[in-house]
Recover the amino acids of this structure.
């Protein structure tokens, strides 16, 4: 199941506009990049998605209600699309179909028959004699109007069952800016990693578990054996009814061991990961996400906050390519926030959303564009003006088979090179070369500097 749209009402800086419309993102199949200046609400979008998909995400009545609407509570609606030919997706859609039919009637139009499922998570305030209590409520959303409800209990059961099937088929990971590997492994990332290891490395997992059991047995029989015998003899002398004494060493499970695994980075010296900079740690976390995306048997929703932190521009470009590769994996949905034009997706399957706050302090989507479109109007605000982004786009949009980059002054120079190779019958001489007219000698210097920083190509 792929996350295809996000709609948010009344969460922190996100609330309905003057026309009553909620904040909405229609997501692309590839990487979805959220850009904008500091404090525009990018992180709030990721946390709202986390609030809906992770039942353990904390909710605060004081902090999470929107300032201008303090008595309103979040309503988050997520739309998923599934592949009916995939057994896991088909199971989810069948459960959703059963609920919609029970609610709306056998002949009603349903989201499930379109391969879609809509989940709504809302927080409802209820007055009690002592205080206001806020309760979390989850339900599917039907495509058609409800009919005559004959069995409330059955309807409730089908709703719970469909949501349970959805949660079993989709896993969510939120990685906040600067988050450490240890804190990530304390969350649901750990459960996902364990499931992937058990599913993809079943034989190796069973071998490791057998080795662990043999180790425990060895401790009990050899190192702890004499102590156990002595304790049993002495205790039985005092208490004849005691049959024996057992000593069980506390050896961590395979799952716990995986969660506490130490990571070192080897270059000139071997350094623990926590001794490396934020950029290296962030890069490793993204690499782990790539492993999960390629090996998980369930859908994945990844939300990454500023993964480029403390990386130099060339590494940011490589990280962007890695993220686009993760997003291209079937069943993976990816949302990324960034301040860097180097991280913004340039894939035709991706989408870029520019977020901003209006005069009321409301987070809104000011503009959006496909990944392969002109990003200058969206990203220019990060750079105070659009020239740098225009140069950056021209400097980094190279075909994947590019071996070298040649900058020329204008279109005439480009034409002459192409004409010359055609006249001698050797157009292949330009294969693998990215020829880029810069529009003048002044721009050539600037573009050469940016190109050098944004790619490792000669």
């Amino acid at each position: 199941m792929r996350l295809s749209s996000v709609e948010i009402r009344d969460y922190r800086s996100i609330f309905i506009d003057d026309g009553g419309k909620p904040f909405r993102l229609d997501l692309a199949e590839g990487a979805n990049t959220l850009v904008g200046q500091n404090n525009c609400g990018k992180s709030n979008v990721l946390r709202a998605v986390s609030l809906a998909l992770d039942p353990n995400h904390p909710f605060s009545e004081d902090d999470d209600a929107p300032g201008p609407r303090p008595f309103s509570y979040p309503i988050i609606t997520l739309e998923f699309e599934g592949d009916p030919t995939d057994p896991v997706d088909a199971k989810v859609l069948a459960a959703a179909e059963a609920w919609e039919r029970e609610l709306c009637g056998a002949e009603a139009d349903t989201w499930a028959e379109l391969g879609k499922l809509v989940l709504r998570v809302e927080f409802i305030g209820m007055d009690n004699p002592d205080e206001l209590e806020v309760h979390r409520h989850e339900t599917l959303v039907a495509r058609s109007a409800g009919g005559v409800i004959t069995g409330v209990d059955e309807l409730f059961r089908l709703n719970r069952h469909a949501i349970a099937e959805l949660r079993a088929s989709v896993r969510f990971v939120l990685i906040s800016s600067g988050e450490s590997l240890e804190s990530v492994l304390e969350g649901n990332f750990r459960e996902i990693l364990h499931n992937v290891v058990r599913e993809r490395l079943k034989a190796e997992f069973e071998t490791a578990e057998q080795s662990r059991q043999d180790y425990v047995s060895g401790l009990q029989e050899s190192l702890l054996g004499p102590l156990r015998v002595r304790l049993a003899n002495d205790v039985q002398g005092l208490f004849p009814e005691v049959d024996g004494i057992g000593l069980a060493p506390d050896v961590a499970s395979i799952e716990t061991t995986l969660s506490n695994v130490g990571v070192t980075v080897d270059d000139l010296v071997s350094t623990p990961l926590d001794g490396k900079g934020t950029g290296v740690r962030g890069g490793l976390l993204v690499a782990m996400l790539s492993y999960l995306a390629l090996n998980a048997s369930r859908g994945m929703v990844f939300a990454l906050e500023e993964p480029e932190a403390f990386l130099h521009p060339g590494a940011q470009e490589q990280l962007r390519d890695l993220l686009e590769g993760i997003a291209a994996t079937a069943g993976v949905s990816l949302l990324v926030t960034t301040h860097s034009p180097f991280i913004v997706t340039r894939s035709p399957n991706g989408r870029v959303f520019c977020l901003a706050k209006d005069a009321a302090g409301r987070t809104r989507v000011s503009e959006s564009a496909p990944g392969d479109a002109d990003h200058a109007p969206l990203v220019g605000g990060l750079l105070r003006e659009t020239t740098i982004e225009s140069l950056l786009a021209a400097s980094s949009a190279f075909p994947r088979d590019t071996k070298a980059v040649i900058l020329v002054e204008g279109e005439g120079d480009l034409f002459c090179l192409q004409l010359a190779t055609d006249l001698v019958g050797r157009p292949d001489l330009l294969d693998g070369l990215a020829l880029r007219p810069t529009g003048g000698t002044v721009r050539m210097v600037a573009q050469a500097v940016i190109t050098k920083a944004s790619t490792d190509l000669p």
